[in-house]
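Appendix B. One record, verbatim.
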Amino acid sequence: MIIHHTRSNLLLMKEKAVSVGNSIGILKARRQALIQEFLNTTMPFLRTRKDITETYGKALDELALSLGHMGRIGVESITYALKRDMRVNITEKSIWGLKYKDVIVHDAPVRDPDARGYDITATPPRLEECIYFFEKILDSMLEIAAYESKLKRLSDEITKSTRKIKVLEERILPDLRYQIRTITQYISERERETYFRLKRFKGSL
């Protein structure tokens, strides 16, 4: 594309350069905010994953002891009483214009022992601990599902913002500045030539 070396185009290029500079500033501020949100979400995400691993080990230990005490049939009979429908909604939230999915749980996965639908006086404490740990794992898994969705969207948006900033800083803005310098030099040279022509003309008169 050929750009004519005129004052109007020079002003246009300068306005574009200012606009691009402002866009870079806005993008950098937004990216910094998203990075901070990413870091703030990463810590509880990692902590939740660690909690799941530790709780799962405890749950398996308690399950093994419960199986030894009650037998497989006894433990399985309790699991039928524990069945229930978990109501979960997927909602859309927004951070700095970035939309992501969030998980809303209506019923708390971890219940009081007397709300589990069986006679707790007929079960050993080990089994109660086992059930508690597995319900805790379910609670943590629902929580981590929300974190994963948020982190994925944040990561993708941070990457996209970085690419946009790089294109603006390394290609668009330098090209505009080059055009501004080129037009400015051309206009200056033309003005000098006009000045010397006028001077010679006056001298000849």
